[in-house]
Amino acid sequence: MTLDSIPLATMDLQTADGVRRNSTKICAPVMAETVDQMLTQARKAKELGADLVEIRLDFLKTFNPRQDLEILIKQCPLPTLITYRPIWEGGKYDGDESKRQNALRLAMELGADYIDVELQVAHDFYNAIQGKKPAKIKIIVSSHNYQNTPSLEEIGNLVARILATGADIVKVATTAVDITDSARLFQILVHSQVPMIGIVMGEKGFISRILSAKFGGFLTFGSIEAGLVSAPGQPAVKELLELYNFRQLGPDTKVHGVIGNPIGHSKSPHLYNPAFKSVNFNGIYLPLLVDNVANFLKTYSSHDFVGYSYTIPHKEAGFNCCDEIDPIAKEIGAISCMIKRPDGNLMGYNVDYLGAIAAIEEGLRASNGASQASGSPLTGKLFVVMGAGGAGKALAFGGKEKGARVIVANRTYDKAKQLASKVGGEAITLAELENFHPEDGMILANTTSVGMKPKIESTPLSKEALKHYSLVFDAIYTPKMTRLLREAQESGATIVYGTEMFINQAFVQFEKFTGLPGTMNQQNDQTQEFSPHQVYHLKFLSFSDLSLNFPCSTKATDSGHFGEKYIRNICLVTLIAVGPIFQHYSYCISIPQCSIRCCLLLLYQ
Ligand SMILES: NC(=O)c1ccc[n+]([C@@H]2O[C@H](COP(=O)([O-])OP(=O)(O)OC[C@H]3O[C@@H](n4cnc5c(N)ncnc54)[C@H](OP(=O)(O)O)[C@@H]3O)[C@@H](O)[C@H]2O)c1
Fold first, then answer.
1. Which of 179, 399, 434, 552 could lock onto 404 through a cystine, CB 3.0 to 4.6 A?
2. Contact call for residues 436 and 426 (beta carbons, < 8 A)
3. Above 60 in pLDDT, residue 469?
4. Which 3 state secondary structure label does DSSP give 98?
5. How far apart are CA 587 and CA 247, in angstroms?
6. For ligand 1, is residue 309 a contact (CB within 6 Å)?
7. Mutation choice for ligand 1 from 315, 360, 449, CB with most ligand atoms inside 8 A
């Protein structure tokens, strides 16, 4: 089953004040032991922006149906979905079944907007009410599978059985064993002729909760607080609205994400989603917990699933799934970014090296005053790469690409030798590097993990040896100022932070995902007022200093007059960088075209 043939135009996007908004609701489960606590949670849900609340009666410690339902339904500030989930369907209620169904009927009479009736008892329930149901109420007939997600055919049959009960709304919740399970629910959702809730529970089903808005789901559940969930894998309301821009998702939203395992810790969605929003790009970026890359790509083969970042352990698996590969990525043997072209072909890139090499080049240009037009300042330089792992390969191939003379120094000599032979360079051990100074003005790049948190007092090379280098780059970015960089600076070298590599590669990927023109290449009269290095400088300072001493850069004022175009570019990059950590971006993204005011606001907040 693949998603390549789904007609995605089943859902209308309503437009209010020129802002499109889908019709998928956000429902916040309210689970508390007392009625008062439930009402407090419901008020919080409203403040957060939920559309309705699911009142889980089975969580109440004591329950007096008439009195409590009257209060809950009448005093709730949002429309109510009343659920009284029995233990046999994954809930907490363990009492008499007729009492449970009586409470649901009472909720209906007292003006609830929706009630949830489990498929197993739906016929009994409908028989008991004998067609007497207030016009406003909608009955959701639900089925929960806590083991797996059945085949497409089985889900189709299940939906037919639910519809046969007379349900106003169909709810099917299954459990993800693999991320591809959600695709079957999407197929059903998109073809459903009646309002339908389709959720795949669990961490591997996370995308079903977000993309239900794209595929026309009736609602998705969002918790009031992160972690206070009624089912595994549920996002928070705040996350849905602020991070995933849930209201604006639609049939034509392009899906991107970071493919890895584990992936929960990834900050990439916090980087790309605000950036997409800031330029009105109709895309979403999701964490994708993938077990088998080939299966994932085959299942989500539609033209709507278009761009991926790759992280541990899937960089090589991604490489093997590409139809075309960027020559450098081919030499490195791993990709970090994949784009689906309009013809469906998958193109792989390794943008790690682009990020690091661009940062080093800018550092060199800044120190010797060269312009971008005069070619790469790395050409002809002796470029020492410490480490021969993933980052080491990217740096060594990048150095070779720029015409540098590459030396690979690694603790394990064999790996150094292997890599050096591929880049036409020389190999030495880390120990030998201590006394290695064939010439002065060499460039050093550390790609070992020595000096990374928590072992911040370690360093891969002595201060004494550093005096032979004119520029030192450290791929490590936690901490930003490593001992190696501190000592290199004290020895008079130009230093380049690992954060610069990180943000640069993110920036390159952003360009590839959105197709927006790259700021780095924009040259016109305005941009020439402001050297590329200064732009980088602002960009990196704003990113890397923000956890400590934002506002970061008084350098912005030193430069005098900037071209407006550069300001916009800086702002965009700054948005990408600071968005997740600072709230200022919400102000910035409310301005359609990033303006000088917006940029300065960021810089001086
Ligand atoms: N700034 C960025 O955007 C960015 C991107 C990627 C990676 N990085 C950073 O770069 C570093 C390496 O990442 P990676 O993906 O290349 O890792 P990797 O593939 O595991 O390679 C690790 C390298 O470090 C060396 N090493 C490890 N412990 C050592 C020690 N105690 N003494 C000497 N050498 C040691 C290894 O040498 P052996 O071959 O002898 O084991 C190997 O060359 C990490 O700190 C990572 O955070 C930063």
1. 399
2. no
3. yes
4. helix
5. 18
6. no
7. 449
Tell me whether residue 415 is one of the annotated catalytic residues. no
Q: Taking residues 384-388, what's their average pLDDT?
A: 97
User: 545-588: per-residue pLDDT in tens?
Assistant: 332 222 223 233 223 333 333 444 444 555 444 443 333 333 33
CATH topology of domain 277-350: Rossmann fold (3.40.50)
> Taking a C-beta distance cutoff of 8 angstroms, is the pair 57, 93 a contact?
yes
The answer on pLDDT for 61 being more than 90 is yes
Q: Which residue among the candidates 204, 254, 315, 468 is catalytic per the annotation?
A: 315
Q: What is the pTM of this model?
A: 0.79
Q: What is the mean pLDDT of residues 253-271?
A: 91
Please report which helix (H) or strand (E) contains residue 397, including its range.
helix 390-401
What number does the ligand 1 atom closest to the CA of 505 have? 3
**CB neighbour class for 577 (10 Å; exposed up to 12, middle 13-18, buried from 19):** buried
Q: Is the CB of 477 under 6 A from ligand 1?
A: yes
Confidence label for 13 from pLDDT (cuts 50, 70 and 90): low
Is 523's pLDDT higher than 90? no
Domain boundaries, the chain: 23-249, 277-350, 371-501, 517-604
Q: Which fold has domain 371-501?
A: Rossmann fold (3.40.50)
Q: Under a CB-based contact definition with an 8 Å cutoff, are residues 356 and 445 in contact?
A: yes
**Do the domains 371-501 and 23-249 match in fold?**
no
Indicate which atom in ligand 1 lies nearest the CA of residue 449.
Answer: 45
How far apart CA 318 and CA 311 sit, in angstroms, is 9
- Name the residue at shortest CA distance from atom 39 of ligand 1: 412
**What does R_g of the chain's alpha carbons equal in angstroms?**
28
Q: How far apart are CA 54 and CA 78, in angstroms?
A: 10
Q: Give the CA distances from residue 497 to residues 80, 445, 464, 537, in Å, rounded to whole numbers and listed in that order.
A: 52, 10, 20, 11
Ligand 1 mean position, distance from CA 349 (Å): 20
CA atoms within 13 A on the CB side of 101: 16
Chain centroid, CA 599 distance in Å: 24
Q: Are strands 19-21 and 14-16 parallel, antiparallel or unpaired?
A: antiparallel
Which of these is catalytic: 25, 113, 144, 400? 144
- Nearest-CA residue for ligand 1 atom 6 is 391
Q: Give the model's pLDDT for residue 601.
A: 34
Q: What is the mean pLDDT of residues 162-191?
A: 98
Q: Is 303 marked active-site?
A: no
- Asked if 276 and 283 count as a contact pair (C-beta separation under 8 A), the reply is yes
- The dihedral over CA atoms of 294, 295, 300, 305, expressed in degrees to the nearest 10, equals -30
> Which of 352, 474, 539, 584 is the catalytic position?
352
Atom of ligand 1 nearest to the CA of 355: 3
Q: How far is the CA of 424 from the centre of ligand 1 (A)?
A: 21
Q: Is residue 437 annotated as a catalytic residue, yes or no?
A: no
pLDDT value at 595 more than 60: no
Residue 542 in contact with residue 550, Cβ under 8 Å?
Answer: yes
Q: How far is 80 from 165, CA to CA, in rounded Å?
A: 22
CA of 345 to the centre of ligand 1 (A): 32
Taking the CA of residue 415 as reference, the ligand 1 atom at the shortest distance is: 39
- By most ligand atoms within 8 Å of CB, the mutation choice from 310, 393, 447 for ligand 1 is 447
Question: Which tokens hold the place of 223?
Answer: 């918790």
State which fold the 23-249 domain adopts: TIM Barrel (3.20.20)
| Polymer length of the chain | 605
Q: Coil, helix or strand for 235? A: coil
- Residues 332 and 302: beta-carbon distance below 8 Å: no
